[in-house]
Amino acid sequence: MSGTLVIPIWVAGIVLILAAWAVLDRFLLPSARWFFRRRVNKVLEDINTRLDLKIQSFKLTRRDVLIDRLTYDPEVMSALDEKSSIEKVPREVLMVDVAKYAREIVPAFNAYVYFRFGAWVAKRAAQWLYRVRLGYANDEGLSKVNPEASVVFVMNHRSNMDYVLVAYLAAAQTALSYAVGEWARIWPLQSVIRSLGAYFVRRNSGDPLYRKVLERYVAMATAAGVVQAVYPEGGLSRDGRLRPPKLGLLIYMLKALDIDQSKDIIFIPVGINYDRVFEDRTLIRSLDKTAERRSAGYSLKKTFGFIGHNFALMATGKWYRFGYACVNFGKPVSARNWIKNNQSPKDTGKAVNVDAFARHLMSEVGKVVPVLPVSLLATVFVSRADEALSELDLKVEVHGLRANLEKAGAHVYIPHADADYALSVGLRMLTLRHIVEENEGLYSVINGELPILQYYANSIAHLAG
User: Fold this and answer.
1) Less Cβ crowding at N or C end of the chain, within 10 Å?
2) pLDDT at 370 over 90
3) Residues 255, 219: contact at Cβ < 8 Å?
4) What is the mean pLDDT of residues 31-50?
5) How is domain 373-464 classified at the architecture level of CATH?
6) In this model, does residue 392 exceed pLDDT 90?
7) Cβ-proximal residues to 103 (8 Å cutoff; 6+ apart), any chain
8) In angstroms, what is the C-alpha Rg of the chain?
9) 365 neighbors 154 (Cβ within 8 angstroms)
């Protein structure tokens, strides 16, 4: 018998879609995955041959695997049981929280995105906005870093541009893993940040279970040799001065010494400074408790106004980059050596004095903060705020200040090794920003602008003693 089978068009459409999906799933997707995985592996092999600090296998482990390891970590489970017992909350409920915390913290590092996209963008952005300079590096100390040690770059925090600047300058040596605040957990920024190897931190969380999950991730990553970059100050400097260190992440990192008794952690001090910090006025305003709180709309308006103004200057050929941005790398600090030299025999086996260690690290960071033209001039103008100074007066003052700073061991960056040029670019920056004005050859501070000069002077105040 024969006959005709009639089916609705919508059924035929579903059959065709399912057939197409089967072909895609069985043939095309595996080939595409193989193609892209091959490209990523090729990039990774190429990069690892030229990096001084190799990308560790922990960083390349599948994210789902790391999340599971973190979720079911024995110490996390112990903290979960304790909280369940104290607060009378079912374990199943807390397990949901732990899994959420783990997914929130664990990054999704992609070497291709980091080196082929992130490093390129960081380089272009940094060079477009600033005259970027590597001022000083303790090459002898850096060359002696044990390749088996975990390396942590410890930096002062001047601007959100720090992430971009240091990632660009360190890209030839390694891939950095940053701790990033909750401000960046917005779509699609958070996905990009995770793919660059960063992990998110709730800086003011009082939940002990969350803190334990974060602690275990940081300790595991450090023990596995993941190269990290941290800001011990815990946030941007609001007055320009170095802030006292916060201990959280340092405590977690030092626990890696307990995980692997043969492991050392090498902390590399990094000093950063700018002729102009984009957030300077906002940071200074935040110190004024009486200042009216500005809305998000106002902030967006000012931001787009700033961008538009700079594009207008570019269009008319009057735009200048925002001065110099300089990074110095100091003498590496071995955690094990510091503990050995600063912990008495009777304290052996006791917890490390993390507070003293953190203060030592910040002291080392402070020693390598670069001195730039604007910070030199700002210091002079602050000290003689009520006077109008000629260019000759400024030269004499800056020369004396520079000599004193260099005598104290500070690293002063003089562009082109030309003191007159350094003075001119510093003055240009201050006059273009209407912080200092020139009248008949005399320079003076514009009324109301002394706080901004104090901010830049504060960045090197610790170097002058």
Assistant:
1) N
2) yes
3) yes
4) 55
5) Orthogonal Bundle (1.10)
6) yes
7) 67
8) 27
9) yes
Which of the following CATH numbers is that of domain 105-278+322-367: 3.40.1130.10, 3.90.1150.30, 3.40.50.2300, 3.10.180.10? 3.40.1130.10
How many angstroms separate the CA atoms of 16 and 386, rounded? 82
Buried b (16+ CB within 10 A) or exposed e, 170-190: bbebbbbbbbbbeebeeeeeb
The region of weakest confidence among 184-193, 223-232, 244-253, 336-345 is: 184-193
Strand partners of residue 153: 229, 268
Sign of the dihedral defined by the CA atoms of residues 74, 79, 82, 85, in that order: negative
At 205, list the tokens.
């969380």
d(Cα 21, Cα 15) in Å, to the nearest integer? 10
Alpha-helical runs (H) found in 51-188: 57-60, 63-71, 74-87, 91-105, 111-112, 119-129, 139-143, 161-170
> Residues 121-141: what's their mean pLDDT?
90
53-63 CB burial, b ≥16 within 10 A, e <16: bebbebbeeee
Whether the predicted pLDDT of 280 surpasses 90: yes
CA 360/CA 337 separation, integer angstroms: 13
Range picked from 39-48, 98-107, 167-176 for highest mean pLDDT:
98-107
* Alpha carbon distances (Å) from 20 to 35, 53, 233, 379: 21, 46, 55, 70
